Amino acid sequence: MKHIRLLSLLVLVPLLTACKLRFGDTLYEVPWWVILVLLCAVLLIILVPALKNTRRVWFTCPGCNRKFKPSSAVLLFSLHANDHCVLKCPHCNQRHMCAPSYDQERD
Ligand SMILES: [Zn+2]
Fold first, then answer.
1. CA of 53 to the centre of ligand 1 (A)
2. Cα 70–53–50 angle (5° rounding)?
3. Could you tell me the distance, in angstroms and rounded to a whole number, from the CA of residue 87 to the centre of ligand 1?
4. Looking at residues 4-19, what average pLDDT do you find?
5. 43 confidence band (pLDDT: 50, 70, 90)
6. Ligand 1 center–CA 48 separation, angstroms
């Protein structure tokens, strides 16, 4: 019973409440679910191409000249400068600014 109350609170409160947004002189009342849907859409638009790109990229360590493929999460949250990334090489365990190279296959 406690879970049902908590679940209904988590689902119904955002549906019943609204956020007031002012554009110029006009005040709009936007439901929270609209903001949540727009936020999810923006995240999908950003993350889907980024994750798609991480599947076909390899990096070459400038220290040992060996290639490695980091996980998508490591790649997304690593420090970037243009297309180079600061990554820890799994072979020599050193952090370097690594140059990317892409798989030849197209999708
Ligand atoms: Zn290395």
1. 22
2. 95
3. 10
4. 76
5. very high
6. 29
